[in-house]
Amino acid sequence: MQSMSLEQLSSLAQVFGSIGVIVSLIFVGLQIKQNTGALQRNEHNSTMEQWTVIRMAIAKNRDIAELMTAGLHGESATDAADQLRLEQMLAEYAWAAFHIWDRTQRGIFPQGTFELTGGATLSGVLRTTRGGAWWRGAKHIGFVPGFVADVDAAIAKDSGASSVATGMRE
């Protein structure tokens, strides 16, 4: 039986070392994928919590629900305090939608998430009489142009769909 030379042992050690590096890289890749999934889930949960605060405020407080329904459609006069409250609720809607838009832009949420969720919800609110008036004034203050353009596109798309559904032309 022939013994291995130091050179052969060195080569064998390099092969095993290379295999070890490859296995380690595969493990690290799997860990990164798993951690990325957990981070995305946390982003989804955070977004859901933001919308839950708004929805629960409306669901649990009849005064806010009335403010949002009658106030948005201009069915009743609003005093300065109610106008401020309505504007703050609209700002919360817009910022919650912005977070979905931003997370979609950064690739955390799949493409189309904003349009199907926050954009659709916000569009419905902003197509009302007072919602639209608020948006026309607020969209240029504090919102990034890309978000504004996408919200305006959602409003236009939904307005067009509403006109077609009712047989009206704008």
Key structural traits:
170 residues; mainly alpha; elongated; disordered C terminus
Strand portion, in percent? under 5%
In round numbers, the mean pLDDT is 84
Give a count of the beta strands, DSSP E runs of length 2 or more. Answer: 0
Question: Given the helix and strand composition, which structural class is it?
Answer: mainly alpha
Main sheet summary: none
User: What's the helical proportion of residues?
Assistant: over 70%
- Globally, the shape reads elongated
From the alpha-carbon coordinates, what is the Rg to the nearest angstrom?
27 Å
The quaternary organization reads as: single chain
Structure characterization notes:
The structure is a single chain. By secondary structure, the chain is mostly helical. It has 7 helices and no strands. Helix 1 runs antiparallel to helix 3, helix 2 (about 60-75) packs across helix 3 (about 80-105) and helix 5 packs across helix 7 (about 145-165).
Describe the secondary structure blueprint for this structure.
Elements: H1 6-60, H2 62-73, H3 80-105, H4 113-116, H5 118-126, H6 129-138, H7 145-166
Task: Provide a brief overview of the structure.
The protein has 7 helices and no strands. By secondary structure, it is mainly α.
